[in-house]
Design brief:
By secondary structure, the protein is mainly α. The chain is built from 14 helices and no strands.
Length: 262
């Protein structure tokens, strides 16, 4: 398939993605057999040189916005083409940083969950994620959490990460309250067990951001009540997390009440 033949399909899929995601998913699945025949070199050409934005959008997306749409469409085409394109996906997943990095990593996770690639591919991702950029952590975590809300297998996948940056990114994004509590307790325990200074600082930041309690991680080392001896203090992580989350709820309630009064 040449770029001239591919462009109308990219434009149609991009338009559907922006206007009707359900129709987009149905369309891309219906043309999946054709996608296997697309030359990956032709797709590469369109990653940073997209076809013309449809006039119906009145240039409101701009070149960057429309290009992002087409890039997402291209990655979905590759995903539906099958794991034979794993090498192409790996180039984006582990190459120089780009916003598409998280999209490529998500596809590796999707293929792994579906049993289309071996476990070693997920283990490689898990091992290398810590050395990637913060933006990639957040974007990957957000994508996997979105998938998990529709497919329980992705919660199992999230729990199988050994690097703490996955649950750290999730608590920073903010997830379901029961999950937020679960992940914060895990991070709290990791903080108490961690010896590496860089990792300790990162975990502390995740705990503080996810708790929304002033210097929440300090409660893991020092009691918040004056009548407790700090030298014999044995922190109960679950109680600390509950205290922090209760503070967050109270703060939100006070904020809403203040807004109502205004």
């Amino acid at each position: 398939m040449t770029s001239k033949e591919l462009d109308p399909l990219l434009i149609e899929l991009g338009t559907l993605l922006l206007t009707d995601e359900g129709a987009f998913q149905s369309k891309i699945k219906s043309v999946a057999p054709l996608l296997k025949a697309i030359d990956i070199a032709v797709l590469n050409q369109r990653l940073h040189n997209p076809p013309q934005e449809p006039k119906c959008f009145n240039d409101e997306l701009g070149l960057g916005g429309w290009m992002s749409v087409i890039q997402y469409v291209i990655f979905e085409i590759v995903y539906h083409s099958g794991s034979s394109q794993l090498k192409w996906i790996r180039d984006f997943a582990y190459g120089e940083y780009d916003w598409t990095q998280a999209t490529a990593l998500t596809i590796i996770c999707r293929w792994y969950v579906e049993g289309k690639i071996e476990k070693e591919n997920f283990e490689e991702l898990d091992t290398q994620l810590y050395d990637m950029r913060y933006e990639t952590w957040l974007n990957l975590a957000q994508a996997l959490y979105g998938l998990a809300k529709r497919d329980e297998r992705y919660f199992t996948l999230i729990d199988s990460f050994t690097t703490p940056v996955m649950i750290g990114a999730l608590v920073e994004l903010g997830v379901d309250p029961s999950l937020q509590r679960k992940y914060l307790i895990q991070i709290g325990q990791l903080i108490l067990d961690e010896a590496n200074e860089d990792m300790l600082l990162l975990l502390t930041d995740f705990f503080n951001q996810g708790s929304n309690y002033p210097n929440a991680a300090d409660l893991l080392y020092f009691p918040g009540e004056a009548n407790i001896d700090p030298y014999t203090y044995e922190p109960n992580i679950a109680e600390i997390v509950d205290k922090c989350l209760a503070y967050k709820l109270a703060e939100n309630h006070d904020s809403q009440r203040h807004s109502t009064l205004l």
